[in-house]
Every structure is written in structure tokens, then in C-alpha cells.
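Example record used in the benchmark description.
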Amino acid sequence: MSIPFQKYHGTGNDFLIIHADEHVPDRGALAERECDRTVGVGADGILFLAPEEKFNPPRVVMTLFQPDGATAPMCGNGARCAAEWTMDRTGADSVMIDTQAGTLRADRDGENVVIEMTPLTFVPDEVPVMADEPVLKAEIEGLEVSVVNTGVPHAVSFVDNVDNVDLEAIAPPVRHADAFPDGTNVTVASPDGSGGFRQRTYERGVEGETDSCGTGAVAVAVVARRLGLTDADPVDVHPPGGHLRVSFNDRGRPTLAGPVEHEFDGEVAVEPPVEP
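Model output (C-alpha cells):
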């Protein structure tokens, strides 16, 4: 049996979107198979979306399964893709997204989808990270990092040039460090010469570098402000896949803005093929 999906991406961070009403016996196994870029469709995750269009603005419940088959409570670009999918269905320019990390509002702004992110925290128990006080500059597994939760944990390291970083070598030891009970994403950033930052992120659950990471972009912006590396608002962040903009609204919460594209539609089998 096959079920339909739509594929969306936000600055290269790509997702298969499946209506939550579709019967999938094992969502984690489906994500492991179809996110694989060799044997599956290829994606950074699968979003199962349950629209609740009776509300104004419309609401959608988002559940993200990552390529390792586990769920993640929050994904900035995933939430923006979920918002675009809901806007495409309803014609609305604003939607509410219920995630495991809280309820978020997203709005269309020209070519961009802007989402209000979850409240951020440097509090060690809430990241979580094994520390007695906020980790603003500490060496973990040989990398100097600042640690923040922007919906998911991030260890952020500022370097001279992100292109010179062997992310696949330096990130896994930090991602799996004993200091992080739940693991962490690992993000490196460097000044772009125009007041913003370039970004690369090794994502927990993907277990590799992605073209873009929305929670990572927010982490770069908030840590840069906390360390006094910028006082800009908005903060422009450039992952490999494009341009994101992080602002801070009148409630003190970060917002993430960037383009979203609907790539194509297709079908996937809900069960793996039978071996001959």
C-alpha cells in the first residue's frame, strides 16, 4: 500500500510531508527508509501534519520523525514548511503550529514564511547540559562552545571561517558528549563580513550536516548577541542552503524568516519491499 506525500524545503532543509490521517504502522521505520538519500526519496525528516482548519487562524499539529527514526520536539525550517503546506491548503496567510516544544505562530511575509520560535534558554537543566551555570564559553571534546536550547539543544562554536572546519570530524564527539544527556546539535558560525554570520550545522537525528538548520540559525543569533559579537536586530544567518533572518519581537522571542519551496509530490510504500 502506498500513501501520498508532498516534498517541501526551507533553504535546503527538506522534508516529506504526510497527512497524519494516512495509516502508517511504523512512522519511525518509514522515516529511516525514505529519508535515506540512496534507497529512499531523500530528506532531512518526515513531517506528519494534522490540520485543524476549523480554527481562525488555522492550526496544524506537527510531528517530526528524523532519519534515525526518532522524533524531535522542534525544527525551525520544518515548522516553516508545515506552515507553507497549511497556507497552501487553506489560503490563509497566518497559521498556528502545535509542536512538542509548544505552539508557534507563522505568517507569510512576501516571499518568506516567518515563524515565532519557542522561548530560548541557557539554563543548564533546561538545555539539558551537565553544568552548574550557563555554558557560554567552555571546551567540550576539544571544541569551545556556547550551549543554548532554541527548541532543541545546540552547542555553538564561533570560528574564523566555517569552510575550514571538518564538521564531520569535530561534531560527533560533541554531539555524543557525556555533558549532553539527550545529545546535542553542533553548529559552527563565522562572521560574513557584512554584520551577519555564516552557519553550518551537524544535526542530531540526521547524524550529519544539513544544508540548513533553523534552530541552529536562531542559536547562532542569540549566542552572538549574548557574547557581544553583534547587537544587530535582525541578524542575517547564511547556512549553505540560503539566507535566513533572525529577529526579536516585542515579546522578546526570536522569529525565523526565510523562503519555503514546494518541490514535488509523490507516493511512498508504508511497508518495506519484500525481499526476494
